[in-house]
């Protein structure tokens, strides 16, 4: 079966509305010959003459009268589908967004993000879920609307990505720890008992790569699956936690944070989403809210960090 030419719907709509080939041609900006050919195609497609001559004009056939209202509605529906989305009405938006976030994001950015959203719309709810792995399937299937994390080679190429902020690794110990006094050298740092943070169980990372050329090696006392657990252990013992600075600001309250005595690469924390939501107005608004809140929180932390004493790393 031949595929119908949907452009003929618009032509038929105008013809039936005008009741004149000449006026329909003017409205569609078609020449008289082009309009006549279009009418011939419509007659062949519908199997009906549609418009027949009567005296000096044209009158619609019963089939044309039957089609006129249906075609009008169809054309209006098509125009509505193809029309750019209307402006988002936040006061009428009722929706729950699911965000899959890296550990520390909710603690540092969750409360201000909820407050920011509540300023504009009471009908939006945020659902935060843990991020146990780098699998992109939840974004692809739609069970997750938005995700935060570090883009890696295993990240699905189809995803949209937008940088939020750069982060770096720092060392953290309990208040009163021996490392809280004096200069922290690579040897002093490596000599302590360390907590390894790894979801996959790996026991080597960028810190170990930086220590190896110096002939040093950390003593890994235990391995945990997240930064919150590492900081909880460090707070209650003499163990050393090495964690991202900006992702753990609130979690490190009351502890001693310090710059690592070795150089490790910075990394970028980004927003990730599936391309099918790229143009969605509500999703665009949510992404803008997340970017705004992260920027405000980090700017505030930077200002407060200038007031901290020597050796104390700034907050998130």
Please explain how this structure is put together.
Helix 1 crosses helix 2 (21-28), helix 2 (21-28) crosses helix 3 (32-46) and helix 5 (105-120) crosses helix 10 (281-305). With 316 residues, this protein is α/β, with parallel strands linked by helices. It has helices at 7-18, 21-28, 32-46, 62-82, 105-120, 137-141, 186-191, 206-211, 227-235, 281-305, and strands at 51-54, 57-60, 95-101, 124-130, 146-149, 160-167, 169-173, 193-197, 219-224, 240-244, 256-259, 267-273. Strand 3 (95-101), helix 5 (105-120) and strand 4 form a beta-alpha-beta unit. 39% of the residues lie in helices and 21% in strands. The longest helix has 25 residues, at 281-305. The protein contains ten helices and twelve strands. It folds into three domains: 7-82, Arc Repressor Mutant, subunit A (Orthogonal Bundle); 90-167 and 268-304, Periplasmic binding protein-like II (D-Maltodextrin-Binding Protein, domain 2), CATH 3.40.190; 169-265, D-Maltodextrin-Binding Protein, domain 2, CATH 3.40.190.10. The strands form three sheets. A five-stranded mixed beta sheet has the order 4-3-5-12-6, with helices on one face. A five-stranded mixed beta sheet has the order 9-8-10-7-11. The chain has a two-stranded antiparallel sheet with strand order 1-2. Residues 307-311 have low confidence and may be disordered.
């Amino acid at each position: 079966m031949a595929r119908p030419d949907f452009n003929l719907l618009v032509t038929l709509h105008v013809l039936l509305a005008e009741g004149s080939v000449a006026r329909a041609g003017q409205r569609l900006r078609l020449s008289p010959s082009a309009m006549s050919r279009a009418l011939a195609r419509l007659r062949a497609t519908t199997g009906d003459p549609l418009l027949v001559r009567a005296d000096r004009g044209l009158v619609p056939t019963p089939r044309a009268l039957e089609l006129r209202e249906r075609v009008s509605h169809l054309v209006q529906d098509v125009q509505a589908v193809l029309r750019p989305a209307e402006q988002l009405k936040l006061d009428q938006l009722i929706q729950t967004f699911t965000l899959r976030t890296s550990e520390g994001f909710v603690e540092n950015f969750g409360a201000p993000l909820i407050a920011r959203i509540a300023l504009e719309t009471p009908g939006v709810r945020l659902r935060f879920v843990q991020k146990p792995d780098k699998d992109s399937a939840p974004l692809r299937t739609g069970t997750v609307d938005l995700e935060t994390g570090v883009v890696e080679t295993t990240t699905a190429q189809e995803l949209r990505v937008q940088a939020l902020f750069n982060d770096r690794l720092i060392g953290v110990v309990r208040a009163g720890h021996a490392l809280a006094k004096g200069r922290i050298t690579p040897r002093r740092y490596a000599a302590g008992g360390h907590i390894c943070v790894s979801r996959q169980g790996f026991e080597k990372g960028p810190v170990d790569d930086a220590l190896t050329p110096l002939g040093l090696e950390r003593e890994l006392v235990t391995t945990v699956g997240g930064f919150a657990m590492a900081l909880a252990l460090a707070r209650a013992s003499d163990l050393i936690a090495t964690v991202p600075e900006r992702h753990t600001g609130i979690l490190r309250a009351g502890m001693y944070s310090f710059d690592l005595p070795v150089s490790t690469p910075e990394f970028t924390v980004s927003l990730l989403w599936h391309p099918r939501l790229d143009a969605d107005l509500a999703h665009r608004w949510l992404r803008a809210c997340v970017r705004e809140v992260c920027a405000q929180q980090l700017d505030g932390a930077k200002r407060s960090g200038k007031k901290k004493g020597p050796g104390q790393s700034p907050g998130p």
